[in-house]
Amino acid sequence: MTARNIAPATGKLGVLTPGLGAVASTFIAGVLTARQDGVAPLGSVSQMAHIRLGTREDDNNPLIRDFAPLASLDDIVFGGWDPISANALEAARTCGVLDERDLAPISSELEGIVAMDAVFDQKWVSRLEGTRVKTETNKWDQAMALMADIERFRVENDCDRLVMVWCGSTEAFQEASEVHETVAAFEQGLKDNDDNISPSQIYVYAALQSDVPFANGAPNLSTDLPCMIELSASRGVPIAGKDFKTGQTLMKTLIAPGLKARMLGLRGWYSTNILGNRDGEVLDAPENFKTKEESKLGVLHKILQPEVYPDLYGNIDHVVRINYYPPRGDNKEGWDAIDIFGWMGYPMQIKIDFLCRDSILAAPIVLDLALFMDLASRAGEAGVQEWLSFYLKAPQSNGEHDAEQDLFIQQTKLKNTLREWMGEQPVTHSEAG
Hints:
The chain has helices at residues 22-37, 45-48, 64-67, 88-95, 100-103, 107-111, 139-156, 183-191, 199-209, 226-235, 247-261, 278-283, 286-304, 310-313, 358-378, 407-421; strands at residues 12-18, 76-81, 159-166, 214-216, 238-241, 265-275, 317-324, 333-341, 347-355, 383-384. It folds into two domains: 12-244 and 360-421, 3-Layer(aba) Sandwich (Rossmann fold); 248-355, Dihydrodipicolinate Reductase, domain 2 (2-Layer Sandwich), CATH 3.30.360. Strand 8 (333-341) and strand 9 form a beta hairpin. Helix 1 packs across helix 4 (88-95), helix 1 (22-37) packs across helix 15 and helix 7 packs across helix 8 (183-191). It has a six-stranded parallel sheet, with helices on both faces. The radius of gyration is 21 Å and the shape is globular. By secondary structure, it is an alpha/beta fold.
């Protein structure tokens, strides 16, 4: 195979995060710690995973970061917007994800990452009050202000390239409307202050117009809108979405493929969560929870294919609940009660109690998406990067068919994309090594 002509990762890579809360500050702190102390960035596939080349007998399994021309952690510069936190250190201390003993050695660097004033509208996150917000009230003017922020950050930090990863809150549920059909309609909607345009959509527009790849880490309608798909194609900029695959949904994409592989039936899957951070507070509002619920509920259907296996998966009760419980902070607890059946229809049960740390699971996803989106851009990619579905709850398809939800198929697609770009043969079976 012929390798793709990929531009080298020279100079600095600016990683911009709309939202400088628990996820973004944890991501930044982890990268700074890895740079300072050489601590392994646990959970990062781009930094820790190997990729098999050739046959198993070849015994050729380099690290992905040694195989693909990814940007170095030392070359990353951080920036972002937040309606509440003044800088990354304040955000990290407020969120309480990381202990002070881990923040102290990097406190000056974190404090130096100052949040830019955010595009914010409480209509979309009713439980939050923004105090560090842009003064512009017209949405077109807000988009122009974001584009000015992007360019200023690029120049002041001497960045060769930029990427943007949404780390903000889940917005209230909405469906696409006429203003989202085309770029022209969206731009007119910005100028008309259309109520159907949310803050996250303004960030995507500003990023793409600035030729900055954008990955959506929340279930908001943004990169999956027709106007943004059109804009990413016309500008030649990669996009990916949506919703970081952490906690409970990660468990579903691990377990559901196993049930299907063994042709075991599923009658019901009840999921409930308790979460006490800013995300939990936002999701306590019904209109915001509905956005997250839509993202979570689609996983099982796409993995299990009830239309193909109606006797096994055609009658599933799938219920998802999220409860705001302040004492837990960022340490989310997810309970799953799974009712399955097997030989001769006899019922069985699986119980999961996952005491996870939401931002600890999300931080390496932010890193990987940033590095892989930058790689895609340097490889000449534009439009939806479906090969990054591995990281997302409701992955965006780049064609007529739904994106794959099986974690292991997603892993193969991710690695085979890297193999193809580097001129290696795909691997269709074992990923061991």
